[in-house]
Design brief:
Blueprint (H helix, E strand, L loop, with lengths): L3 E12 L2 E12 L3 E5 L6 H9 L4 E8 L2 E2 L5 H6 L2 E4 L11 H6 L5 H10 L16 H13 L5 E5 L7 H16 L4 E5 L3 H7 L2 E6 L2 E7 L5 H9 L1
Parallel strand pairs: 3-8, 3-9, 6-7, 7-8
Antiparallel strand pairs: 1-2, 1-4, 4-5, 9-10
Length: 230
């Protein structure tokens, strides 16, 4: 089994005095992909925010590629190779698609590389990002993050509110990127089929605790949905 790229060990965390996660253990192997699933309010996004460093932990440890980053600020985690795509297809709406990409990198070969990954953006480079569809903005958000050349890509609800054909494209991108072996992916996702097809490992959260986990490729939809219904 590959060495872990990300580990949460016994993490308890929350907002102020209100704890949301309780003694969470989670591992994402280097070059692999993992999904965190559960109902709204289960603590899924809080897991990602802990990994990114936006929420401090009350107890437990967070490791990135073997380094203890529990107390590291988000900018240090980015320097260590973490890339984060938050929920909501975020972009700079008044700027063109190309300008959004150039905010991260002006290196033409790098931009060409992410356009190869998301070819649908190629014909939209001069269009204001605010005029893109939700699916196109999501592709732009992921492409922009990939320009930072992360080793760990964290995605919060990448399929929310986007059309099925783009969901399929994003799924294939995740599979292709992790198959190369130089990128690890952790995502929060409600679309169970997408999560299982695009990841190797899954975790189910309920009220801030991991209640079920398994191998994505070997799990059935019914098995995971039953775990989420408990």
């Amino acid at each position: 089994m590959a060495e872990p790229m990300l580990e949460l060990k016994g993490v308890t965390a929350g907002y102020g005095r209100s704890m949301v996660l309780f003694d969470v253990d989670l591992t994402v192997p280097a070059g692999g992909a993992a999904a965190v699933m559960g109902h709204n309010g289960a603590g899924r996004t809080t897991v990602l925010r802990v990994a990114v460093g936006l929420i401090p932990v009350k107890s437990g440890k967070v490791f990135l590629d073997g380094k203890d980053i529990t107390k590291a600020r988000p900018n240090r985690r980015v320097r260590e190779g973490l890339g984060y795509v938050p929920q909501g297809q975020l972009c700079f709406p008044q700027m063109t698609t190309l300008e959004n990409l150039q905010l991260v990198s002006n290196v033409k070969s790098d931009i060409d590389g992410v356009l190869d990954t998301f070819p649908a953006l190629t014909d939209l480079l001069s269009r204001p990002a605010g005029l893109l569809s939700g699916g196109q903005r999501q592709q732009l958000a992921i492409a922009r993050t990939l320009l930072g050349k992360p080793r760990l890509l964290i995605l919060d609800e990448p399929t929310e509110g986007i059309q099925p054909n783009v969901v399929a494209e994003i799924e294939q991108v995740i599979v292709d990127l992790t198959r190369r072996g130089d990128l690890t992916v952790l995502l929060v996702e409600q679309h169970v089929g997408f999560a299982l097809r695009s990841t190797d490992t899954y975790y189910v959260l309920e009220s801030g605790r991991i209640t079920h986990s398994g191998e994505g490729g070997d799990a059935s939809l019914d098995e995971v949905r039953a775990a989420m219904a408990v």
